Amino acid sequence: MARLSAACACLTAFLVHAPAALAQPGRLGGGGSLNLSLTRIVMALLLCLMLAALAALALKRSGGRIDLPRLRGLVAALPAQRRVEVLETRRASQYADICLLRCDGREYLVLCGQQQHLLLRESACPVPASAPASAAPPGAEGEDG
What we know:
The chain is an alpha+beta fold. It contains three helices and four strands; from the N terminus they run αααββββ.
């Protein structure tokens, strides 16, 4: 407790005795003043107040409880229209990664470095794992008796 009060006393003394010139606009870090209009500040305040009011109404409507499974259902119901999918990423070296990407029915193997990206291989996508159940399991093609 004594250390905390001593630290607070030192901080207060520093702030009281610090010259006001350290915080002058245009000199602190060499930047200029912030040119924010009052309209922009008021509009941001109104937006934040509306969001807070909507959140309060939602909490009041639900009885003060947040129904997380229902919220997850709402998020899961959103359409996931993504053309590019990252299938796998591996670290090749300290400065490079190898990424396997899928886009528009094609797979791309890309080497991603610090300054450049190199396409190593491009191919059509293989048949997905949800193929018909009559397909033989992997490795069972050449087994007899």
